[in-house]
Amino acid sequence: MMKSTTPFFQLALWCRLIVCRFVPALGAVAVTLLIGNSAFATPGTQNSFFQNSSMATAANYSSAAAPTNVQDILLTTSSTALTLTAATRNFGSLNATNGLVYTISDGTTGTTNSVINLGGGTTNGITGASGSDLIFLSGNSSLTLQGPNSSTGSGVLGVALAANGNFDASSGSTLSISGVVSGAFALGVNGAGTVNFSGTGANTYSGLTTVSHGTLNLNKTGAVAIAGNLTVAGGTVALQQSNQIASAKATTVSSGTLALGANSNSLTNVSLTGGSITSTTGVLTGLTNAFDVQSGNASAVLAGSVGLVKTTSGTVTLSGANTYFGGTTVSAGTLSVTGNGRLGNTSGTVSVGGGGTLSIGSGVTLGNTINVTGALNGSGLTSVFSGTVSGNGTLGGTMKITGALAPGNSPGIINVAANGSLTFGSGSTYSWDLGSLTDNLTGTAGTDFDQIKLLTSTSALNATLGTLVPSFGSTPAPNSGNVFWNSAHTWTVVDNTAGGTITGTFLATNLWSGSGTFSLGATTLNWIPATTAIPEPSTGAALLGLAAIASAMAWRRQRLR
After folding, report:
1. Cβ distance 244 to 202 under 8 Å?
2. Which conformational region is residue 217 in: left (phi greater than 0), alpha (psi within -120 to 50 degrees), or beta?
3. Dihedral, CA atoms, 118, 123, 129, 132, nearest 10 degrees?
4. What is residue 374's three-state secondary structure?
5. What H or E segment, with its residue span, contains residue 543?
6. What's the pLDDT at 448?
7. CA–CA separation, 333 and 355 (whole Å)
8. Which of 508, 503, 522 is CA-nearest to residue 462?
9. φ, ψ for residue 68 (rounded to 5)?
10. Which of 276, 326, 327, 320 has its CA nearest to residue 302?
11. Is residue 351 within 8 Å of 369, Cβ to Cβ?
């Protein structure tokens, strides 16, 4: 039997795709179009919205039918104030390329919300767009998807992601969304233009947000703009209000810039593998895990009870006045501190592992306790260490100690590299440990006592203002009465067999009155025990002595008779 092709039959085909519902509270019918296929749509088909302003009216599309999620909607109408009234529209993608400034808002006079579903169909077929673009703007076009529409009612226009995809605004184009972006899918931000998230409703899409180009401005009021994990892989993510990124999620900067400006955010996981984290006065607070830095730059202030860990072979530069409390570990690569940079609160210990380098810029003062197994480099006499520097590592560049230098880990050897220059400033100390009752003849530097070693003829040490302070730990001190201290001893406290340059001599500290004296040469520490004096005889002893002599003489005379 032949199928009817009468107009009535065609109308029936269209009507079965429309779900009509009566909304008693509004006394009106709200329309939701959930269309899987259309006689006018083929995969990737362009469907132009070409006339008037109502996007809920099928006749305003070039297909003369309601669009579907396999159609790419191209805005070509000269009307720029567009509305979607109490409806849901399913688009494959939404596009504008003609340079006009479009606004789409909920046109209801009541409270019913409208939604634009994007994706779930096929790829974007608009010229210039990439296959995964959900929204594509070019030619200096502008599109605003306006959330609350206070001019005509309280209905809100939302955007729902029905598939993974991109918001792609090319150079000079701007996409602004002030409603809620929802969905369980990932979102990419591409193109050299600008994407703005604003409004008071939190975005709830839960997939990964990846920004590869352009600028994503986060400007939600009292709500998060990024609900899932965030990766900055290029371009700029700019916070225009605080706490725009969900705190429980992970944020990774691999390229481009995370720009806090004057705003702050607290995050459970922060990784810097490239690019920059910047701020003017904003603070990035770590909540649970240490800041993971591998490569890149961070001028923002890093705060919180967590620490900072430098891994991999790359270089990370810190220039913010950081206040984090959890200490700093440099296990690989180079961690450079410049400008106003700090390694967190001075109560946090800094550990530089064998594969790591800590480089301190000119004008930087660090008050942390620093343990060096790898390398510690300065950039001049204004690279100042006011805490304690310890470990068996190597000091390079030019640096000044105004705190304490304590080689090894009780005891050990700390090295001054080729072309390295170590200066002890006023009030500084060389904390020298004696680990056992040995000296140059019976002990070994680095095992039994501390030493500074100049590695080459170009290594330099200025000891003029430094004071050597002996430390004994559990080893018997000079005033302990141990017989070791009854004889003279010498230790080489600076090894200069390489022929480096030594200026001045450390000052000696003597706290063992009556036991002996420490003195210093250019490279040695010497112990001189106190001289043992013959005591003056007492009067009684003298008389007894005289009586004994008289008795002896009388006995001798008696024998001679």
Report:
1. no
2. beta
3. 70
4. coil
5. helix 539-560
6. 98
7. 7
8. 503
9. -130, 175
10. 320
11. no
Query: Exposure of 289 by Cβ count < 10 A (0-12 exposed, 13-18 middle, 19+ buried)?
Result: middle
- C-beta separation of 201 from 223 below 8 A: yes
Instruction: Look at residues 133, 215, 129, 146 and name the one whose alpha carbon lies nearest to residue 174.
Output: 215
> For residue 560, what are its two tokens?
């001679």
pTM: 0.85
Q: Helix (H, G, I), strand (E, B), or coil: what is residue 61?
A: strand
* 316 and 295 Cβ atoms separated by less than 8 Å: yes
Task: Compute the residue count for the chain.
Answer: 561
* 466 touches 432 (CB < 8 A): no
Is 383 within 8 Å of 362 (Cβ atoms)? Answer: yes
What pLDDT shows up at residue 456?
98
Q: Distance (Å, rounded) from C-alpha 183 to C-alpha 134?
A: 13
Q: Give 238's contacts (C-beta < 8 A, 6+ positions apart).
A: 215, 216, 217, 218, 259, 261
Q: What is the rounded average pLDDT for all residues in the chain? A: 88
| C-alpha distances in Å from residue 146, one per residue of 109, 158, 335, 449 | 15, 8, 45, 73
State CA 412 to chain mean position distance: 32
State the average pLDDT over residues 136-143. 98
